[in-house]
TrEMBL record:
Pfam families: FUR. Its cofactor is Zn(2+); Mn(2+); Fe(2+). GO terms for molecular function: DNA-binding transcription factor activity; transcription cis-regulatory region binding; zinc ion binding. The keyword Lyase does not apply. The keyword Repressor applies. Zn(2+) binds at residues 100, 103, 140, 143. This is Ferric uptake regulator, Fur family. Binds 1 zinc ion per subunit. Gene3D superfamilies: 3.30.1490.190, Winged helix-like DNA-binding domain superfamily/Winged helix DNA-binding domain. GO terms for biological process: negative regulation of DNA-templated transcription; regulation of secondary metabolite biosynthetic process. Keywords: DNA-binding, Iron, Metal-binding, Repressor, Transcription, Transcription regulation, Zinc. It comes from the Bacteria.
Length: 147
């Protein structure tokens, strides 16, 4: 984790920002929760356990700064709340999400099956694809059994 924190500190420094203690605490929460999709309020709640002096406004500002510098990315699962996760997609790989309409469980889908479609869109429509996002809605195994 220390290596990632140092890399991000350098990335921010190159853009004339500092990785302050509060920003680092927020970053560490995101790194520790890598496989989760945290709302700003979730991040705030986890940071407060480590650093009671961090305010909600600081969390929001820091998340926006991290988004702006592609340290994290956000996803809206249709419930009106942004969720944040660490990752910059530096390798060009995107993961997608299957969202249960009953219990809200979010499952990451790591296969990126849209590469061919992106290439075809580029050819057919003379379009440069820079990003994509796929959300699949349905029912998880547990909820499917209850239906």
């Amino acid at each position: 984790m220390k290596k990632i924190v140092n890399e991000i500190a350098d990335k921010l420094k190159a853009k004339d920002y500092k990785l302050t203690t509060q920003r680092q605490q927020i970053l560490e929460v995101l790194l520790e929760s890598k496989d989760q999709h945290l709302s700003a309020e979730d991040v705030y709640s986890l940071v407060k356990k480590k650093a009671p002096d961090v305010g909600l406004a600081t969390v929001y500002r820091t998340l926006e700064l991290f988004l702006e510098h592609e340290i994290i990315h956000s996803v809206d699962f249709g419930d009106g709340r942004k969720r944040y996760e660490y990752g910059d997609n530096a390798d060009g790989h995107h993961h997608h999400h299957a969202i249960c309409l009953s219990c809200g469980k979010i499952t990451e889908i790591n296969e990126d099956l849209l590469e061919d479609l992106e290439k075809q869109v580029g050819i057919d429509y003379n379009f440069i694809v820079t990003d994509h996002e796929l959300k699949i809605y349905g029912y998880c195994g547990e909820c499917k059994e209850k239906r």
